[in-house]
Amino acid sequence: MKLRMWSAGSNATGFGFTLLELLVVLTIAVLALAVALPRFAALLPGAELKSYSRQTAALLRLARSQAIATGEPVTLTLNSEQRQTQLSGQARGHAWPAAVTLSLSGTGPLPVPDVPAGLVFYPDGASSGGTVRVAGNGRHYRIRVDWLTGRVVFDD
């Protein structure tokens, strides 16, 4: 006696896949993805740095917007000892990834030792100006802040 199996095609005499075979193939595919995905980040070494640089630029834009909206100056402080950035008026800071360093230059007077560097945004949209350099893993990105307009530019 010959067993007939159902198939999705128009040919009723052809053989198809059983549910068990499909489940086995899907299980193997899921296991392969589970092993491969953590390794995917290693293929893109600069992805985390670029992502964090874009987040920092967005935080600078947020500081400018808050200064304009509230009518009060807003300062973005870069605290290298605690490895975090913090907006004035916010209790919680934004932590830096482990392999990332931030530096600030061109903000006017020379920085005072033991005082965290910072950028000030004023209610008229202007800022103290400067350049934030985000570096790590042999790469770096610059975020420029124009002192006159407060415009934030992310350099790829």
Automatic annotation (TrEMBL):
* GO cellular component annotations of the record: plasma membrane; type II protein secretion system complex
Q: Does the keyword Transmembrane helix apply?
A: yes
Which topology term describes how it sits in the membrane?
A: Single-pass membrane protein
Localized where? Cell inner membrane
Specify the domain of life of the species encoding this protein.
Answer: Bacteria
Query: What keywords are annotated for this sequence in UniProt?
Result: Cell inner membrane, Cell membrane, Membrane, Methylation, Transmembrane, Transmembrane helix
Single Gene Ontology BP annotation: protein secretion by the type II secretion system
Residue intervals of the General secretion pathway GspH domain: 54-148
One Pfam annotation reads GspH
Q: Which family does it belong to?
A: Belongs to the GSP H family.
Q: What protein name does the entry list? A: Type II secretion system protein H
